[in-house]
Amino acid sequence: MSHSKLTVVDFFCGAGGFSEGFRQQGFDIALGVDSWQSAIDTFNHNFGKDFQSKNMLEFEHSIEQIENLPDSDIILGSPPCVSFSTSNKSGKADKTLGIKLTECFLRIVAVKKHKPNSILKAWFMENVKNSKKYLQPSYSFIDLNLSEWAEKNGFDSNAVAITLDGNSSVINSADYGSLQSRSRLITGEIIKYGKFLIPAPTHKCPSGKASPNVAGLQLLPIHRTLGEFISSFPSPFEIESSEQIKDPSYDYLIDKNVISDHFYDTGIHACEWKSSKYLKLNHPYMGKMSFPENLNKPSRTVTATNIGSSREALIYKSEIKRTGNGEYRVPTVREAAVLMGFPLTYQFVGSEGVKRKLVGNAVCPSVSSALAKEVRKAYGYATFDKSHIIVDPNLKGVNNLNTFSVKEFGAPPVRKKESKFRRHPFKKGNMTVALSNYDIIGKEEEFGVWKSTVFYGTGEGFGSFTYEENFYKHLEPIIMNEFSDGDKFIKIINNGFSERIAGKNLLQEMYEKKLSVGRFLEPTLLIEELARVIEGFDAYDELFIQKEQKIFEKPIVPKKQLYSLYAINKIVTIANNS
């Protein structure tokens, strides 16, 4: 069997994760194409190239530009997934550009596949799972604006040029040894067989459900875990040392003092990790997530941003003892890159924000390496059990983020002017009682007037009702008569808690600055404090059964939701009238 070099052209190449997996299997990288300069700089740095940035839309109408591209054995592409993602504008983002860019890629594939004496052996495209519903099952030459080219080369312009239907599979990187669970749609074709072949997994989900049903599945090792990685990798707070470290994903050692982008403090402000914790554990209509991360599973998907206050943020407990600011941290750029499957020697060019985007948008090399093996096997080329890795890092021209120091926390990042606020103390009885500074139901445009609203159910379309100011006065006698601790609860709210409620303008200002002023609590802390108070009055999950009074749409609700409505309506009344 031959070890002959096969060539790769990588479109939307980004940081080069797709190409890296193929390089690890002995392929030569002939070209990387991307419109983002930082991506091209990173690609060039790691592959020793001098490519220029280029917009893929230049291939939309120019056959000449496509024909001038080098012929290659493999064509790779990962069109930008942002518009297709369900997380972008709740899946309602404009898909037009995403579709156009994808069709530009398929246009290139069609020309290179069907041209006379084509050498193309396979093509692969990576995107988010949701992209499939916006693409056609197949594309004719005319669909790809190739009518004239097809007729010139002896094809019917209505003939199918590229088939996607049946040539796609959702692949989880954890099934191929990655330290993260990252499910992406891989579409492609091994030309020899005229179809896509799913690579055999190297690892399996403990339940056996996540991996394809293949022979020998029961013999595979289970998914690697986040805990396995964190426990064996140096802490970001370690001092400089010439100690040698094993790459978590590959079989080689590297001096710890040449590991870049890792030994710096990624601790986040208390207001940020508390926001993330709330959204993970108590989101208005989405399920619970672990806080901090679950160490017994692969990492959740690495994202392209570093917003420590978001629901999707990866949050770790800090290795150094701090309370509040810095108590939790986000992964370092190097940790994120390792979770993606990049070798420790792989470098990223740019600022920290740029590096995180490069890493989070990449294709996992473990997945692309598995695809590369599949091609080699199909054409009778030997595969490599040991990946080809560049073991000497090139740090020249790299903005190394290492500081080997602990940062001091100043003022937290502020929110935008007139930021919307919505929070509830807890979900209970499939309902929530929310405090907001706008009309959540959407009936009014008025902003800055605080409101108390009850929501039934946890998704769009469920019943809801917003209560008028001073409604809490109707609840006071009910609470005191129905519950033995009602009188005590009312006293605590009216004597101590109420004094911490600011007027509406100051409440908004504190929310935007993420800071409390004097005795007043900013609204996120106000809701946190309320949750603590109410939890102390509901040790036995008591219920409130409505009689003649009509307070809630449900006849029976948790007692703590009655208490929540009382306190939140009182917040609204005080704030709007101060």
UniProtKB/TrEMBL annotation:
List the EC numbers from the record.
2.1.1.37
Q: Which residues form the active site?
A: 81
TM region(s), chain numbering? none
UniProtKB keywords = Methyltransferase, Restriction system, S-adenosyl-L-methionine, Transferase
- Look at the named UniProt entry and state the broad enzyme category this protein falls under: transferase
Q: Which reaction is this enzyme known to catalyze?
A: a 2'-deoxycytidine in DNA + S-adenosyl-L-methionine = a 5-methyl-2'-deoxycytidine in DNA + S-adenosyl-L-homocysteine + H(+)
InterPro entries attached here? Answer: C5-Methyltransferase (IPR050390), C5_DNA_meth_AS (IPR018117), C5_MeTfrase (IPR001525), C5_meth_CS (IPR031303), SAM-dependent_MTases_sf (IPR029063)
Q: Name one GO molecular function term.
A: methyltransferase activity
| Biological process terms in GO annotation | methylation
- From which domain of life does this come? Bacteria
Q: Which PANTHER family match?
A: CYTOSINE-SPECIFIC METHYLTRANSFERASE (PTHR10629), DNA (CYTOSINE-5)-METHYLTRANSFERASE 1 (PTHR10629:SF52)
* Recorded family membership: Belongs to the class I-like SAM-binding methyltransferase superfamily. C5-methyltransferase family.
Instruction: Supply the name of the protein.
Output: DNA (cytosine-5-)-methyltransferase
